[in-house]
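Q: I'm teaching a short session on how sequence maps to structure, and I want students to see two examples side by side rather than one. Could you give me a first protein with its sequence written out and its structure tokens following it? Keep the formatting plain so it prints cleanly on a handout.
A: Of course. Example one:
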Amino acid sequence: MGLRIGIREGIRTITRNSSLFLLSLLVTSISLFLLSLFVLVTVNLYHAVKLLDEKIEIIAFLDDHANVQGLMKNISKIKGVNDVIFISSEQALKDLQNELKETEEVLNVFEKNPLPASLRIKLEHTFRNRKGLSEISNKVMLLQGVKETIYGGELVDQLKKITNMISAFDAGLLIIIIFSVIFVIFQTIKLTIFARSTEIEIMRLVGASNSFIAIPFTFEGIIQGALGGIIAFLLTAVTVRITTSIVSVVYFPRLYFLAGSIIFGAIFGIIGSSAAIRRFLR
């Protein structure tokens, strides 16, 4: 019963102070939109790093008379190897020609195909690091028929540095944005509380509990946060649509973003409103 009355009072507060609520909703929406953009950029950065990580592999160049099937079978048994793909010398030449279309005449200086056959060795995720690459590469080199192995050790190190930088930067910026959103909601609810301070004092004098008084403001904070989250999601979706006309691919899981925007908006609303009402009622 008390909850129902509290929610009804919350709706009445919103409608009675609609100008303040709409202004606060606008600021909250912008704050959550910035948070959503930040998350979107972060997700796409991690997605790009993941795609690069999946390209980390070992290339084993083979002798002319290597037993390809035997090598593929033996390499597949090595711990950490996910897949082995054979690339013939002819296929390697075609791939190179496709990559060097503008300078294809450079390859014409060779009387015969200079590229050896090779094996592309795909690794499991836990082995896509310098140590794992080195261990598997050394084992492959021991096999008869393997002339040389190469792997992107520098790429692995760069990916690790990029990931660490993103994580460190994200953590700091995320905290700042979250506190900004909560602060906006906190200030909004505080203004509403001050506007109704006389009414609240009367309620306390007639015996209303702090929890009963807090319900309308908490409800207002939830509504403000959730609506702000929805608006932020719509703004993000529009931004993604505009961006995709410039950048071919933007990773944007809509359902997760919508749910996250509403849920986190409501949570921030609860935190901000609770902090404001607790400060007033203490």
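Q: Perfect. Now a second example for contrast.
A: Example two:
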Amino acid sequence: MESQNNGKTGINTPTAIIIGAVIIALGLAFGLKGNQNQKALNMAPDKKTDQVQDFSNQREKIINNLSAKAEQITGIPQNEFIACMQNPIHAEKVKNDSRFVSDEGTPYNIIKSEKYTLNIVGALPYKMISGIVNDMLNNPDFVVPDDFKNTLPNEELIIRSTDHVRGSLTAPITIFEYSDISCPFCKEFHPTLKKLIEEYPNDVAWVYRHHPLLDKHPIADLQAIATECAGALRGSDAFWELLDDLISG
């Protein structure tokens, strides 16, 4: 039956009932799907959280490995060493070591005497380093090249009570090394400074400071903290023993 129009546009009752039923059905369907999607969203794993947890687990494993290495090298029991590594004071010491060289690469070295101060970046060969030391000690005409002039503040270039030193504390020359234990160039340069101390035991003091480049070596801070704990728990010799072992690995 054709409905009466009466000059107005409208929807007859049966049609309205059908449309209403369709709208309700669609609403229920989308509502159910929305609930399912929400449940799925709630159940979906948080990838960022998983990554953080995975990284945390990796660091815990590394701490355990470092503590085992420390026990082997220094005799410090693992549980004592792990407790030390969890003490934030050592992480703060590592961070404080590099506060003036945060933008520099490694190894970064300052060679200082009463008369001269120069900076050297990179793993220079022994012949070059020993030549510089000889000139600083014996050559009255020695001039610091412009490229080697120091830019660090004077207060940074003193031996602090928290520093680790090889050689004579009264030596006329002090080498401040900022180093990353995982850095391949630091690994290459480490034996050079060891040899320099052996050759100049009364003339050179080697001050080791941490400068972990975490964007390149994400466990370098833990390695640095481990050496600090070795020193804190068993003294300077233990610090250098563990450092020598880790940086040669």
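Q: What should students look for in example two?
A: Point them to this: The domain at 100-220 is CATH 3.40.30 (Glutaredoxin). Also worth mentioning: Residues 1-48 have pLDDT under 50 and may be disordered.
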